[in-house]
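Dear colleagues,

As part of the handover before I leave the project, I'm documenting each prediction I ran so the next person doesn't have to rerun anything. This entry is a single chain, and its sequence is reproduced below.
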Amino acid sequence: MHVSNLILPLLTLSVTTTAVSALHITPQHKKALAAQKISEPAKREGVLAAAHKNKVKRLVKKKKRQSCQVRYNATSIVTSSTAEETASTTSIVGDDASAIPTLTNNENWANATATQTSSSVYETASTTADDWGFSSASSSSSPQPSSTTSAETSQSTSSWSKVEEWSGNSFFDNVNFWEWNDPTHGTVDFLGASDAWNSGLISINSNKRAVMAVDTTQVVSGGRKSIRIHGNRVFTGGLVLMDAYHMPDGCGTWPAWWQNGPNWPEGGEIDILEGVNAFTQNQVSLHTGQGCTMPSDLNSNQVGSLTTGSYNSYDCSSTNTANQGCGVRDETTQNAYGSGFNSIGGGVYAMRWSKAGIAVWFFPRSNIPSDITNDSPDPSSWGKAMANFPSDNCDPYQFFYDHYNIFDTTLCGDWAGADGVWNYAGYAGQDQSCAAKTGYSTCADYVLNSGSSFADAYWEVSYVKYFNSTTEV
């Protein structure tokens, strides 16, 4: 998770789940997991660079980390449920007979810590075009499109086939909940699954959409309750679609839909939908190990523009750029982020990770291509992407592998709460600083004392869908 004319790194953390008949775990693996301290998960150490009034990037450093993963056969998925999920059935509306079998935790395994170095802690998933390298992961239990084509498309010739869907009553069966301290040092208290259901911060609404909210109790201490979920599915290459009707918005918020690999930054990070405070523009970012660079004509092949900063903006290496990486901000597409996104009923974000590279599109609610709604996506018909990172000098399977999707709403933290961000305006569509908008001199004071201001800080997600292609991946 990251950023900007500001760029921030977001942590990565990957774990495992059982409920899979072909799962093989070595005694060393289980021993390493048992030795971990749940109260001390991997942390990203953030140090924000001084803010520059000429709008250069604001940077945050984060440590490398490793993850705990195991291999399994995607065809061996079975349905299971935890006691927490059983106890929360009163929060779920209706039935979904078409729900896809999903994975849940049978053991509360802690995530790998930043200090782990043993390669025996995890076994990376093997990746083939047929099984898409899936594994399981957990961490505790008139709008303008960015595409140049119309929503009305001809009959699809898609090479992509759907392999998994999170939607309806089973949406939260596909994820696990982060319930430790925020690695980005936010004024936030992330809840585990049971507390999230019982507090009402997660639910399936009457439209069978997943809702992930922030606590609106007016005054709190320590941190405001919020949600961070990690997808169970671990994958290398593919096409992922996310349809949301609403996203968190407003001063103090740092929402993101993103994905991560093991051993950050060597496994790569892709920030698909991210921003802070009252931004109205989305930024898509890559963070990698050394060696991944972008071509000088990058901007001519995408709707967004490469952000500039103190380092080489074409170098995606976190090491070489103090975690700046490669960021593309879309200053053209209307209503792709924040309040504008919510005002049109959101839309669909699509991330294609293929041999050609990594690309992200956004389609507003009124202009979603028919091939997407028909589950036969055809990116070749979508026109120019919001962000397009070609594979010319950045092998998409060398610098990115074994990813899992993450939704979270951090509050304040290393980006949204940094003095140079809280007190600054004039970038990413935000024309007034949050200090001026709220009357609070710090983000933390605002978050702790103004709960009613976070009524709009929620995700409302219709689905997340994963597709595979035997020719493009």
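The first strand starts at residue 70 and ends at 71. The CA atoms of residues 290 and 319 lie 7 Å apart.

All the best with the project,
I.
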